[in-house]
Q: What sequence folds into this?
C-alpha cells in the first residue's frame, strides 16, 4: 500500500476544503470497508485519506417534517436497529439483516455505499424506488440530486473532486402504499447479491388500480436502475396475471446484466422476471391490505 | 492382538486445546517474533505460460532496507543447490527458471528489513516474458497439438514406493496414466441388459485453511538451519529440503506450531524451499507469510473430467464399470500421480463389479499446482460414481437405496484389486443414514407452494496411504505424568486430544496427566505425514504400543523387585498389580531409581506394507474408509435456489476415541462438502484467475447450513487400530455433493453433472426440460 496523508476534518466545510486542496488526489474515508480493499490491492493510490468520522452531524437518522433524513455516516447496522426506520420504513431494517455480515454492517456506511458506486449492493436500489434525493456539500455551497442521477457507471458517480455526500432524503410514502425488496443471492447467503428488486406502489382504495409504481433493479446494470417499462405496464390498472406478466418481461428486457460469477445474463434476466412478478404481487396485496 | 475395550478417558472430556484457541492465546506461526528477521516477499508471474527472457533486479537492490533478491540465477549458477524437486517428479524449482507455468508462479523473491521495502523492491524487478499459449483445461491439454507445459520431467532416484510404476508420458502433457483392470470389460458389457454412459465434471477449488501458509528460516552459526513452518508433514519437507540444499537431514530442524487448518494444502514443500533459499542468500533469518491471494496460487484441488460407463444386469446387479478419469494437476505434478491412483481405486465405488477398466490420468495444465485435498481424488470419482448410481436407479425404476444395498460391499468381499475387504461397515452406514433420513417415508409438503423437496443418498469407499511409518515415544516422569512425543500435527482435527486419550487409557491414568509436546523434527520420532486420515490409526497405534512398552517396563521392575513372575503382574488403573498388592506408578519409579527422579521411555512404531503380515494377502490400504451421506433439499421452482434442509452422515470409525472430536470431524467434513457441492470454484478468464479472494470465491456460511447435520458413528473395529479405531478425517465430505445432486433430481427431475450445484443450473435445467 502506498503511503498517504491521513486527515480528520471536524466539519463538512473543512472536508470539502481539504478535498479541493488535493485536487482529485484525496479520497473520503467513512467506514472503509470498500475503500480499504481497493487501497490494499493498489487500485487506488491517493495522496490523502480524509476521514470524516468526526463530523457527528452526519451520523443521524432524523425525521425532518414529513421527510426522513439519513446521514452519510449512518452504518448499515444503525439502519438495521433504527426505531425511526422500523416505524416508518421497516423494509430498510429488514433488508439490512442480510447485508454482508455484522462486522461489515458495523463499519460500512450509507454514504460509502452510494459514493463507492459499487454495483452489487442493496440500499440504493430501494432508495431510488422511494424517490430519494441526496444532499451534496462542496466548496461552492452544495447541491441536491435525485439519487438515481448520482450513479454514472460501474464505480463511477456524479460526485466531483471537492464534494462530500452528506445526507439521503426520503420523502413520505403516500397513503395506501407498500414497498418491499428482495435481495437474491445465487449462491451463499452471505455472497454479494446477484440481483436486487424493489417494488413500491400505491393502490387506489376504489377500484384497486396501481399508482406511482416504482420498480427498482440492482446489480443488473452498471448502476441501480428503475425499470420504467415495467412500471408503465402496471401503472393505472388493477394488478392481474396479464399485466404482471408484461411487467416481469419488460423488466427482464430493459435491464442490462452481465455474465459473471454470480450468473449468466440469461439467468439474471429470468430472475428479474421471476422476482418482479413475485414481489409486485406481494406489494400489491400489502398496499391493498392497508399496510403502508 | 485382541481389540481393547472402548477408551474411557475422553468420553465426557473437552478438547485439550480449546482454552488456548477460544481465548486467542494459541500461538500460530504468524504470532512468532524473531529478532533480526527479514520479511520475504514473492514476485509472481502475471501470465499463465511464458518463457522468461530476462530478470533485472538492479532497481530493486537500490531500495533502502533490501538485503537480498533471489532469482533464477541463484538456482542454476552452481550455488550447491539441486535445482529440481518435487515429491513424485522433479518438475518444480525454487523460483521459475526457464518458464513460468501459471499465473502466480514465483519468479523472484526479496528479503528486506520491512515488508513495505520488500514489496516496493519486488515491484521494481523487471521481467521480460515471451508468451506461450496456455493450456487451461485437461481436454485441451491431452490433444496432440497441445503446447507442452513441461518439455522434460525428471524422475527422482528414491521416490515413493507406491508410485514407482507411475511415469510421465513423454512429449505429452499426461503426467501419469494409472490403469486398473479386472476381468474382461468388453465381455462384461456384452453380458449386461443395460449400459449407461455419462460425463461428470468438477471445477478446481481451494482448501481455504483459515491460516495461510508461512515459514521462518534461520541458519545457525554452525551451518544448521531452523525452520518454523505451516506443514502437515515436516519429515517429508525435511527430506525434500535436504535434497534441494544438498544437506544431511540432521542439519535441518523443522518446528510446527499449531496449524490453522490443513485439509491437504500443507503437505509437501510449499513456501519452505524459497524461504530457506532467501535466508541462505541474505545470511539473516527470513519470514514469508503468504496472503490469501497467494494461497490460491500455491495449491488447489484437482478439477476433473470423468467419463463413466456402467453395465447392469436385468436384475440390477452391477457388472461392468469402465471409467476414464482426467485430473487437472496444474503446472506441477506435486502429489497428483497419487491422487490419480487413489481416484482410480474407487472409481467403481463401494460396489461389487465383475469387470472393471479404469484409466486415471493426471494431466498438466497452466493452472496453479493441484495437490492433496481432503478426499484425495475420491471426492472426484465418487461424484461420478454416486451420481450415476442414481441415474441407473431412475432408469431401471429401482429405489436408489435398494439398488445400492444390492450391490454394496460386505465383510470379506473381493475389492477391484482382488484383495479381500475386512472391517467394512459401509452397509451399516447406508442403513443408518437411510433411517435417519426417513428414507421411504413421504416428505412433508413445504408450506410455500413454489417450493419442492427431494432426498438423495451416496456412499463411498476410500484407501489410506500405504505403506507408511509412524514412530512415537512417551516419557514417563517421576510423578507418574507422561509427555507424548509425536509428529502428528494438531491442525484443528483434535489429534492432540485423541492421542492423549489413547495414552491415558492404555496406561490407566487420567487425561490431565498427559501432555502432548509440539512437533519438532529434532525431538519427536519420525512420522510420514498428518494426512490421509491416518493419524489415529497409525500414530494412535504407535502410542498404544509405546504405552504398553512402558507398562511392560514397570511390571518388569515390580517382578524383579518383589520376586514375582512377570506373568503374575498386570497393569490396571495406573497401578501395577501383583498378588493382593497395588503399586502406583510413582512408587514403582521411586523403588526402581531409589530416589525421587528418573525417567522411563516407551517406544512404539507402526509400519504398514502392501502385504498383510498376518495373511500374506495383498493390501492396497492398511484400512478402508467407508461411509454414507444423505441430504434433503428444498428448491424454489421460480429461481432454482436450493436449500439443504437436512444432512445425515454415517462413517465407519472403527471405534470412537473422543466422542466430541469424532462428531466435530464428521460434521466438519460435511460442511466442507457443502461448500464443494454448492458454491466453490476457481474461475479463469484467459489464463487469469478471476476470484483469488474471499469476496468472489464463495465459501459456505452458517446461514447456508441445514438446521440439522447428524453425525452417525458406525463402529466396525479394525484389528490393527488402537482400540479398533480407524481414520475419520475425510469420509464425511465425499458423499455430500452426490447426495445433494441426487436429491435435486428427486425434487425437480434435473440431473446436474458438473459441480457446483448452483441455483442457475437447477433453474435452467427446469426451463430447458
A:
Amino acid at each position: 500500500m502506498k503511503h498517504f496523508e491521513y486527515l480528520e476534518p471536524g466539519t463538512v466545510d473543512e472536508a470539502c476544503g481539504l478535498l479541493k486542496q488535493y485536487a482529485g488526489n484525496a479520497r473520503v474515508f467513512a467506514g472503509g470497508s470498500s475503500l480499504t480493499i481497493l487501497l490494499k490491492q493498489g487500485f487506488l493510490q491517493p495522496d490523502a485519506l480524509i476521514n470524516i468520522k468526526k463530523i457527528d452531524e452526519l451520523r443521524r437518522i432524523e425525521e425532518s417534517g414529513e421527510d426522513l433524513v439519513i446521514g452519510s455516516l449512518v452504518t448499515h447496522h444503525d439502519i438495521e436497529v433504527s426505531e425511526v426506520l422500523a416505524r416508518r420504513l421497516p423494509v430498510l431494517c429488514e433488508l439490512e439483516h442480510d447485508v454482508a455480515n455484522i462486522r461489515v454492517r458495523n463499519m460500512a456506511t450509507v454514504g460509502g455505499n452510494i459514493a463507492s458506486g459499487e454495483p452489487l449492493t442493496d440500499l440504493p436500489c430501494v432508495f431510488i424506488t422511494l424517490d430519494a434525493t441526496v444532499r451534496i456539500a462542496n466548496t461552492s455551497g452544495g447541491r441536491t440530486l435525485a439519487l438515481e442521477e448520482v450513479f454514472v457507471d460501474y464505480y463511477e458517480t456524479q460526485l466531483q473532486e471537492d464534494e462530500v455526500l452528506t445526507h439521503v432524503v426520503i420523502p413520505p410514502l403516500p397513503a395506501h402504499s407498500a414497498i418491499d425488496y428482495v435481495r437474491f443471492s445465487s449462491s451463499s447467503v452471505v455472497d454479494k447479491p446477484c440481483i436486487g428488486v424493489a417494488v413500491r406502489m400505491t393502490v387506489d382504495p376504489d377500484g384497486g388500480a396501481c399508482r406511482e409504481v416504482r420498480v427498482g433493479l440492482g446489480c443488473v446494470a452498471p448502476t441501480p436502475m428503475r425499470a420504467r417499462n415495467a412500471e408503465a405496464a402496471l401503472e393505472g390498472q388493477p394488478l392481474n396475471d396479464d399485466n404482471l406478466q408484461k411487467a416481469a418481461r419488460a423488466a427482464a428486457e430493459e435491464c442490462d446484466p452481465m455474465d459473471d460469477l454470480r450468473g449468466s445474463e440469461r439467468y439474471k434476466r429470468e430472475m428479474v422476471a421471476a422476482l418482479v412478478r413475485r414481489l409486485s404481487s406481494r406489494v400489491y396485496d400489502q398496499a391493498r391490505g392497508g399496510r403502508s | 492382538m485382541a481389540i481393547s475395550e472402548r477408551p474411557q478417558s475422553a468420553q465426557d472430556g473437552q478438547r485439550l486445546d480449546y482454552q488456548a484457541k477460544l481465548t486467542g492465546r494459541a500461538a500460530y506461526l504468524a504470532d512468532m517474533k524473531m529478532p533480526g528477521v527479514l520479511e520475504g516477499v514473492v514476485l509472481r508471474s502475471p501470465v499463465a505460460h511464458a518463457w522468461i527472457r530476462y530478470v533485472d533486479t538492479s532497481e530493486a537492490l537500490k531500495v533502502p532496507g533490501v538485503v537480498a533478491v533471489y532469482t533464477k540465477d541463484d538456482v542454476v549458477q552452481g550455488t550447491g543447490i539441486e535445482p529440481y524437486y518435487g515429491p513424485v517428479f522433479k518438475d518444480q524449482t525454487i523460483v521459475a527458471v526457464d518458464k513460468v507455468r501459471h499465473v502466480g508462479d514465483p519468479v523472484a523473491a526479496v528479503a528486506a528489513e520491512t515488508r513495505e521495502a520488500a514489496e516496493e523492491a519486488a515491484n521494481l524487478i523487471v521481467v521480460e516474458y515471451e508468451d506461450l499459449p496456455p493450456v487451461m483445461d485437461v481436454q485441451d491439454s491431452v490433444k496432440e497439438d497441445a503446447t507442452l507445459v513441461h518439455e522434460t520431467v525428471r524422475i527422482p532416484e528414491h521416490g515413493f514406493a507406491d508410485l514407482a510404476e507411475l511415469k510421465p508420458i513423454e512429449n505429452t502433457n499426461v503426467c501419469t496414466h494409472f490403469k486398473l483392470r479386472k476381468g474382461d470389460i468388453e465381455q462384461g458389457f456384452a453380458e449386461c441388459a443395460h449400459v449407461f454412459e455419462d460425463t461428470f465434471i468438477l471445477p478446481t477449488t481451494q482448501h481455504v485453511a483459515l491460516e495461510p501458509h508461512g515459514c521462518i528460516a534461520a541458519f545457525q552459526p554452525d551451518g544448521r538451519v531452523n525452520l518454523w513452518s505451516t506443514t502437515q508433514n515436516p519429515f517429508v519437507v525435511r527430506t525434500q529440503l535436504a535434497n534441494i540444499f544438498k544437506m544431511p537431514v540432521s542439519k535441518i530442524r523443522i518446528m510446527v506450531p499449531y496449524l490453522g487448518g490443513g485439509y491437504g494444502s500443507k503437505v509437501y514443500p510449499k513456501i519452505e524451499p524459497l524461504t530457506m533459499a532467501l535466508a541462505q542468500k541474505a545470511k539473516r533469518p527470513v519470514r514469508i507469510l503468504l496472503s490469501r491471494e497467494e494461497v490460491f496460487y500455491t495449491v488447489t484441488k484437482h478439477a476433473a473430467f470423468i467419463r463413466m460407463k456402467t453395465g447392469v444386469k436385468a436384475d440390477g446387479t452391477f457388472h461392468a464399470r469402465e471409467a476414464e478419469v482426467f485430473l487437472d494437476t496444474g503446472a506441477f505434478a506435486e502429489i497428483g500421480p497419487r491422487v490419480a491412483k487413489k481416484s482410480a481405486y474407487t472409481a467403481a465405488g463401494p460396489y461389487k463389479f465383475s469387470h472393471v477398466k479404469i484409466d486415471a490420468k493426471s494431466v498438466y495444465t497452466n493452472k496453479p499446482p493441484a495437490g492433496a485435498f481432503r478426499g484425495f481424488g475420491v471426492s472426484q470419482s465418487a461424484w461420478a460414481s454416486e451420481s450415476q448410481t442414481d441415474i441407473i436407479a431412475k432408469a431401471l425404476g429401482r429405489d436408489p437405496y435398494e439398488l445400492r444395498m444390492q450391490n454394496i460391499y460386505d465383510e470379506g468381499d473381493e475389492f477391484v484389486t482382488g484383495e479381500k475387504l475386512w472391517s467394512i461397515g459401509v452397509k451399516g452406514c447406508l442403513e443408518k443414514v437411510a433411517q435417519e433420513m426417513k428414507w421411504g417415508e413421504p416428505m412433508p409438503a413445504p408450506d410455500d407452494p413454489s417450493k419442492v423437496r427431494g432426498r438423495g443418498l451416496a456412499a463411498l469407499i476410500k484407501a489410506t496411504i500405504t505403506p507408511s511409518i509412524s514412530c512415537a515415544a512417551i516419557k514417563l516422569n517421576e510423578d507418574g505424568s507422561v509427555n507424548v512425543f509425536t509428529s502428528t500435527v494438531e491442525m484443528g482435527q483434535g489429534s492432540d486430544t485423541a492421542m492423549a486419550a489413547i495414552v491415558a487409557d492404555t496406561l490407566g491414568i487420567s487425561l490431565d496427566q498427559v501432555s502432548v509436546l509440539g512437533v519438532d523434527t529434532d525431538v519427536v520420532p519420525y512420522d510420514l505425514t498428518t494426512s490421509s486420515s491416518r493419524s489415529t490409526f497409525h500414530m494412535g497405534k504407535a502410542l498404544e504400543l509405546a504405552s504398553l512398552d512402558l507398562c511392560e517396563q514397570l511390571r518388569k521392575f515390580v517382578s524383579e523387585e518383589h520376586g514375582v513372575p512377570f506373568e503374575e503382574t498386570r497393569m490396571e488403573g495406573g497401578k501395577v498389580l501383583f498378588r493382593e498388592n497395588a503399586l502406583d506408578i510413582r512408587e514403582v519409579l521411586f523403588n526402581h531409581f531409589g530416589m525421587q527422579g528418573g525417567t522411563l521411555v516407551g517406544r512404539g512404531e507402526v509400519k504398514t506394507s502392501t502385504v498383510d503380515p498376518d495373511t500374506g494377502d495383498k493390501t492396497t490400504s492398511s484400512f478402508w474408509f467407508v461411509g454414507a451421506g444423505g441430504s434433503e433439499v428444498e428448491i424454489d421452482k421460480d429461481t432454482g435456489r436450493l436449500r439443504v434442509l437436512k444432512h445425515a452422515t454415517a462413517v465407519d470409525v472403527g471405534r470412537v476415541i473422543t466422542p466430541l472430536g469424532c462428531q466435530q470431524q464428521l460434521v466438519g467434513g460435511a460442511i466442507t462438502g457443502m461448500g464443494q457441492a454448492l458454491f466453490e470454484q476457481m474461475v479463469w478468464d484467459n489464463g487469469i484467475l478471476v476470484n483469488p479472494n474471499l469476496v468472489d470465491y464463495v465459501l459456505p456460511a452458517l446461514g447456508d447450513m441445514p438446521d440439522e447435520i447428524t453425525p452417525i458413528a458406525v463402529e466396525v473395529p479394525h484389528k490393527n487400530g488402537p482400540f479398533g479405531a480407524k481414520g475419520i478425517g475425510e469420509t464425511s465430505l465425499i458423499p455430500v455433493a452426490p447426495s445433494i445432486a441426487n436429491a435435486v433430481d428427486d425434487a425437480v427431475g434435473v440431473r446436474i453433472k458438473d459441480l457446483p450445484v448452483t441455483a442457475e443450473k437447477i433453474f435452467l435445467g427446469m426451463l430447458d426440460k
Summary: The longest helix of chain B spans residues 535-562. The first strand of chain B starts at residue 38 and ends at 44. Chain B has a mean pLDDT of 95.
